[in-house]
Please model this.
Amino acid sequence: MRVHICAVGRLRQGPERSLVEDYANRFDRTGRPLGLGPLAIAEVEARKGGGMGAEAALLARAAPRGALLCALDERGKALGSPQFARLLARWRDEGRQDLAFLIGGADGLCPELRDRAAFRLSLGPMVWPHMLARVMLVEQLYRAASILAGTPYHRA
Model:
């Protein structure tokens, strides 16, 4: 199952980008033998004044056709890492070809796009900057692959 992160905003050089690249590489190495990956990241930016609607259109275009959409949303379901790993495995085992995580901009996701998502995932009750949410998501993808592979990375 190919995994896509479709996110508003571009990561510049810096610690967030380094972390995303590191965890993405780890996920690809660990996940590929499990049928997870590769991980692709699509960054979109709406023109100034376009708002959430313009961002939603760009995010929808960035997601592969037929992909299962998973919206990152503070009102979504908060999962523990083992639950998240089982969810990824279930989607993979159901024969999903593509999974696309959607990360909105500063104002979040457009309600219409959020409602189209098959699943809404919360990273907890706090609101996170979208650049940090991307880091946290990629780390959790690597952690999920590690759990499924039985490696000692996850020690809970």
Notes: The chain has one domain: 2-149. Strands lie at 2-8, 39-44, 68-78, 98-103, 119-122. The two ends are 26 Å apart (CA to CA).
